Amino acid sequence: MSLSADFSKNIPRYQVLMLSSTSKIYVKELSQSAPIQCIGLFRFTNLTLITHPLYDKIVELLKSDSTMASYLDIGCCFGQDLRQLVFDGAPSERLVGLDIERGLLDLGYDLFLDRETLKSDFVVSDILKAQGKEWQSLEERGFDVVHCSAVFHLFTLEGQITAAKNIARLVKKGEIIIGRQMGNVKPGDFPALIEGSFCYQHDLGTFGEMWKRVGEATQTRWKVEGTMDLININPNNTLEDEGSRCLLFTITRTE
Q1: Which residues, in sequence order, are CB contacts of 71 under 8 Å at separation 6+?
Q2: What are 50-69's pLDDT values in tens digits?
Q3: In whole angstroms, what is the distance from residue 16 CA to residue 27 CA?
Q4: How many C-beta atoms surround the C-beta of residue 93 within 10 A?
């Protein structure tokens, strides 16, 4: 597997010093665990969940003893957004993180120094396959809030539909999926991080159409709302262009 750029060399020096001095984790160890752009550029230090318009309501929902609401972070990386919820008062035992890379989850404990105190569960699973006892347990539990940032845009359109159909089985009726991802004002296939591969980038119209297809396939219905903005967009980046946008979304399961 060859990468289209050496992203780790672009990490700001202050972030390197922050990580190495506070938790003894070094740049190469982080970027080699999963060589993808958002890690190589240390974008995980720019928290995404906290920027969502529903964030404050989500915190209050998770804190409420009357609702006992639960939260799932898909593609949680080091668990940074999950831990922000805990910092803001959400009980950690109501939060679950999921990632395909065990190494990222382990490094999260090293990064935040909370292996002995954090009560959240972390699950290693592939959302394209949705197999195994742990995934079955997630389906049986169901979740009120599913956070899924920087995940769908990693796949082809068909891959995204497969992932979305699997994720749909985890969301309780009336509850939500929220997140951010790379979009484009001209939706279509774009070069992906691995040379020779492609991923699909949506606008709001195609993203809504995808969830209509997901609903038909899973006998559910979904309301898709969102915005397209220029937050963290850099047209000079090799994987972005003038049409690139950050797609922020809220997907509500209505049936």
Answers
A1: 58, 62, 82, 85, 90, 94, 95, 96, 143, 144, 145, 146, 147
A2: 999 999 999 999 999 999 99
A3: 6
A4: 12
Q: What is the three-class DSSP state of 188?
A: strand
Mind listing the pLDDT tens digit for each residue in 3-34? 334 434 444 454 454 555 555 555 555 545 55
Can you list the alpha helix ranges (DSSP code H) found in the chain?
13-23, 27-33, 37-40, 55-63, 80-87, 102-112, 133-141, 157-168, 204-218
- Tokens 């749909």 map to which residue? 168
Look up the pTM and report it: 0.86
CB–CB of 203/187 below 8 Å? Answer: yes
Q: Which domains does the chain have, with CATH numbers?
A: 1-44 (no CATH), 45-253 (3.40.50.150)
Q: What's the gap between Cα 39 and its chain centre?
A: 12
Tokens describing residue 131: 């197999």
